[in-house]
Description:
Chain A is mainly beta.
Amino acid sequence: DAGVTQSPTHLIKTRGQQVTLRCSPKSGHDTVSWYQQALGQGPQFIFQYYEEEERQRGNFPDRFSGHQFPNYSSELNVNALLLGDSALYLCASSLGGAGRRNSPLHFGNGTRLTVT
Amino acid sequence: QKEVEQDPGPLSVPEGAIVSLNCTYSNSAFQYFMWYRQYSRKGPELLMYTYSSGNKEDGRFTAQVDKPSKYISLFIRDSQPSDSATYLCAMSPNRDDKIIFGKGTRLHILP
Lengths: 116, 111
């Protein structure tokens, strides 16, 4: 049973550049959430996608955008990178819709983004 | 005041001891409570998932929720060196709402 997979595992970018991170949800899951985890902090919610639509959004600027594809996989895009965007970006999947009641989040191992 | 408060530790205990980890929260609307374990360079792994108040036990782990006090706990019995990790509490008002995490407590089990 394939869990949540994320790519790449590590990435180094320069200030002002743009980055795209990718996520494949756990088999059978249709909802993808993205979190940012700074060093020594808990994960912070960025947004959630269900049925290819952004369903909820946390307190992140518009530089952070995403997309969900028909196969439920997802991308996180960050434009105009800042030093403060350096963090571990976590993707989590769950089951939305009628099956959501007993479907907690399952996390991938994240993408470590370093902005220099 | 932060929505979820969690002592970052580190907490060091000898192998075999009972470990108590705690979080407090300010939002009385929280109904779903979770504990995640995160090893270094890995994503969080769900340990316990409870709804509303009460206790839940799973093997060596027991989760307690005291909603009137806005306080949740995770107990680990017969702690093992492999339990050394960061433990994150998390909670949300409704099943579909975003989950709010604590900062995490770093736990070291000493052989």
